[in-house]
């Protein structure tokens, strides 16, 4: 592969960060390695050495940030299952677990919280809780 | 008071804050709102979340920073740092880098696709 003035890890990061949601969802470390014409283990070692974190972790963080934005912005309440699929997760439970590790709460609750942020003052958080019974049951599984 | 519950309430409180209030949020303020002792809350939080309350607030700020970098292309790093309540932009950049392994300016830069 060609080395440019920006380091190899920066190329990997650009490859991840510049994807749109659909493309990011389909991205795996194997695909990145193929695209950059390098073995997965070689990619891992260079990235880990330069950035001090595994490339897979960086990819996962990028997916989580986009997932959180999708949760906040999908006006017609895109189901968690769909968002999970969009970000390339085969299992919603796995997505929920990883999401909780990053944000401290489940995707369903997170969506409610982002809506409360934009609520006019005077509205009680309890007003929203009534609508989230289904999501709460799901979160208990994790 | 149910112990995990107070931790969940703290998490709820942090995540429901707008950026303007998140910027000046502290463990003491949250403890005040929830009506518990600051040290008690800090201890329980660490026990149940495996991360300190202080660090959790910081991490949430960094998440919001990433959202803004994803969405708003015009905000400068200095403005972003101030918006999130960092007194020094350098401190914000360091913490962002420590969490995402990339500096905020670079994050924005690399979002631009080159073929």
Structural class of chain B: mainly alpha
Number of helices of chain B: 8
Low-confidence stretches of chain A: 1-5, 122-142
Residue runs with pLDDT of under 50 for 5 or more positions of chain B: none
Number of domains of chain B: 1
Beta-strand proportion of chain B:
under 5%
Mean pLDDT of chain B: 92
| CATH class term of chain B | Mainly Alpha
CATH topology of chain A: Arc Repressor Mutant, subunit A
CATH level-two architecture of chain A = Orthogonal Bundle
N-to-C SSE string of chain A, H for helix and E for strand:
HHHHHHHHHH
Secondary structure tally: strands of chain B: 0
Q: Structural class, from helix and strand content of chain A? A: mainly alpha
* 3D shape of chain B: elongated
Computed Rg of chain B = 16 Å
Distance between the amino and carboxyl termini of chain B: 57 Å
- Quaternary class: heterodimer
Helix content of chain B: over 70%
Task: Give a description of the structure.
The complex is a heterodimer of chains A (142) and B (115). Chain A has 142 residues and is mainly alpha-helical. The longest helix of chain A is centred in the middle third of the chain and has 19 residues, at 55-73. Chain A is built from ten helices and no strands. In chain A, helix 1 runs parallel beside helix 5 (55-73). Chain A is elongated and about 50 Å long. Chain A has a single domain, classed as Orthogonal Bundle (Arc Repressor Mutant, subunit A). Chain B has one domain: Arc Repressor Mutant, subunit A, CATH 1.10.10. Chain B has eight helices and no strands. The termini of chain B are far apart. Chain B has 115 residues and is mainly alpha-helical. In chain B, 72% of the residues lie in helices and 0% in strands. Chains A and B meet through helix 1, helix 5 and helix 8 of A and helix 1, helix 5 and helix 8 of B.
């Amino acid at each position: 592969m060609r080395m440019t003035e920006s380091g190899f890890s920066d190329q990997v990061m650009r490859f991840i960060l510049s994807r749109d949601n659909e493309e990011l969802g389909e991205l795996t470390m194997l695909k990145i390695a193929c695209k950059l014409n390098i073995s997965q283990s070689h990619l891992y070692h260079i990235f880990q050495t330069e950035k001090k974190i595994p490339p897979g972790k960086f990819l996962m963080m990028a997916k989580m940030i986009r997932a959180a934005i999708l949760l906040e912005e999908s006006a017609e309440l895109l189901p968690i299952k769909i968002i999970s699929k969009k970000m390339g997760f085969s299992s919603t439970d796995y997505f929920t677990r990883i999401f909780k590790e990053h944000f401290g709460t489940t995707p369903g609750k997170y969506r409610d919280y982002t809506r409360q942020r934009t609520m006019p003052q005077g509205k009680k958080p309890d007003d929203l809780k009534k609508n989230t019974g289904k999501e709460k049951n799901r979160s208990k599984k994790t | 008071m149910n112990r995990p519950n107070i931790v969940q309430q703290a998490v709820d409180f942090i995540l429901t804050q707008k950026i303007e209030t998140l910027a000046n949020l502290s463990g003491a303020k949250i403890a005040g709102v929830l009506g518990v002792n600051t040290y008690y809350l800090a201890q329980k939080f660490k026990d149940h979340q495996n991360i300190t309350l202080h660090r959790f607030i910081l991490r949430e700020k960094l998440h919001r920073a990433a959202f803004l970098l994803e969405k708003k292309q015009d905000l400068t790093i200095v403005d972003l740092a101030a918006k999130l309540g960092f007194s020094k932009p350098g401190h914000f950049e360091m913490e962002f880098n420590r969490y995402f392994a990339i500096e905020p300016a670079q994050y924005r830069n690399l979002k631009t696709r080159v073929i």
